[in-house]
Design a protein that fits this description.
Length: 100
């Protein structure tokens, strides 16, 4: 056991020594197992959060690329076309989001 050991695992190890609480050994074993399960669940949650952050960054980069391409596409098209007006409104919204 080191100082860097997560608290849940430290407590789980401590529960393996039943003499300090006077509780039945089965409760110690159950509590230790639950602490280890919760620790593992927390690790999996952090791993999932990291994956979500990577996906968010990927989608943000894709969004920047799409906005750039949309600017190129509508550059020479007359503003009288309704689709261009809508595209410019979306570009303005994207610009506000990125600058804000």
């Amino acid at each position: 056991m080191t100082d860097k050991q997560p608290e849940a695992l430290r407590l789980a190890d401590a529960f393996g020594i039943p003499h300090w609480t006077g509780l039945p050994i089965a409760l110690h074993v159950e509590a230790a197992a639950e602490l280890r399960r919760l620790h593992q669940s927390e690790r999996e949650a952090w791993r999932y959060a990291d994956e979500l952050e990577q996906e968010r960054k990927r989608l943000d980069a894709l969004n920047v690329e799409l906005v750039d391409k949309l600017r190129v596409v509508i550059r020479g098209v007359p503003d009288t076309w309704d689709g261009v007006k809508q595209a410019k409104a979306v570009l303005d919204k994207a610009k506000e989001k990125n600058n804000g």
